[in-house]
Amino acid sequence: MPKEAGAPTGRLQVRIKRSAEESQERFEVERFPAMTVLDVLLAVQREHDPSIGFRFSCRVAMCGTCTLRVDGRSVLACQALVQDHAREIEIAPMAGYPVVRDLVVDMAPFWEQWSRITPYLDPKESLDEPAVVRPDSEEREAIDPSLDCIQCGACYSSCGVSGQHKTFLGPAALTRAMVLINDSRDAAGRTRLDVVSGQDGADRCHLIYGCTGVCPKGLDPARAIRRVRTGRVEDR
Ligand code: SF4
Ligand code: FES
C-alpha cells in the first residue's frame, strides 16, 4: 500500500481461496482508509506470497478484468472498498466459471454466450452514410441505461440460472441483445430476436435480480430481460 494512502487504521484478516490447496489461506495486512480489495491483494502479494494468482489491468473500473467475490458478493476488486471497521474479509473467484488458478477464472462460458447474440452493430446503411441516433431522442434514452457494460462477468457469476444451465444466454448477453434489437441503425434484429426467443433466451430467466444487485456499472440486466420478453418501452 503506498504511504500517501494515509495512516493504517488497523489490521485486516484476509481469507483467500487458493486453487492448489483447494482451501482458504489466511493472511494479515494493514488496513488503510479507502483501501480497495485490489489494494489488499497487492499487499498480500507483496508482503506474504508473490505467487498468488489474480487479474487486473485498468484499476479504475473500466476494463472488467478484476472481478471476484468478496464475502460471497461479485465485485470489481479495484472498485470495492474494504469497510473502515472490517476486521476480516473472504476473497474467492467468481462462481460459475472454471478456475484457472487461485482467483483467476476462465471467462470462456461468458464469451460463448456473448458471441451468440452478435454483440456488435450490423449497420443498415453503408459506412459512408451512417444513420444517426440523436443523443436526446427517445430511442437513445431507452437504451442509454444499458450501454455501459464492461463485460466483467459479475452478473453471470451471480445468476443461479447461468450457474445451472451453461447454454443460458445470461444477463449480459441478453442486455446487449436488447440494446441492439432496439437500435434503429441495426440490420440483424430478426436474427437476434430468434436467439433471445429460443429455449436459452429471455424466458429462462427467473427474474431473481441477482445480476442487477451486483452490476458495478449500475446496469439493470433483469429489467433489460423483461423488456426483451415484452417489448415494452416501460420495461427499459
Ligand atoms: S451487465 Fe454489469 S455485471 Fe454484467 S457483465 Fe456488464 S457490467 Fe458486468
Ligand atoms: S482493474 Fe479494470 S475493472 Fe478493475
Distance between the termini: 42 Å
CATH C-level label of the largest domain: Mainly Alpha
CATH homology superfamily name of the largest domain? Alpha-helical ferredoxin
Bound small molecules, deduplicated: iron/sulfur cluster, FE2/S2 (inorganic) cluster
Instruction: Give the overall pLDDT as a whole number.
Output: 92
The level of helicity is 25-40%
In order across it, which strands form the biggest sheet? 2-1-5-3-4
Number of domains: 2
Give the number of helices. 9
Outline the structure in words.
The radius of gyration is 20 Å and the shape is elongated. It folds into two domains: 3-105, Ubiquitin-like (UB roll) (Roll), CATH 3.10.20.30; 108-235, Alpha-helical ferredoxin (Fumarate Reductase Iron-sulfur Protein, Chain B, domain 2, Orthogonal Bundle). It contains nine helices and seven strands; from the N terminus they run E-E-H-E-E-E-E-E-H-H-H-H-H-H-H-H. The protein has 236 residues and is of the alpha+beta class. It has a five-stranded mixed beta sheet with strand order 2-1-5-3-4. Strand 3 (67-70) and strand 4 (73-76) form a beta hairpin. The chain starts with 9 loop residues before the first strand and ends in a 6-residue tail after the last helix. The structure holds iron/sulfur cluster (SF4) and FE2/S2 (inorganic) cluster. FE2/S2 (inorganic) cluster binds at residues 56-59, 61-66, 76, 78.
Give the key terms.
alpha+beta, Ubiquitin-like (UB roll), Fumarate Reductase Iron-sulfur Protein, Chain B, domain 2, single chain, 7 strands, 236 residues, binds FE2/S2 (inorganic) cluster, 2 domains, 30% helix, 5-stranded mixed β-sheet, binds iron/sulfur cluster
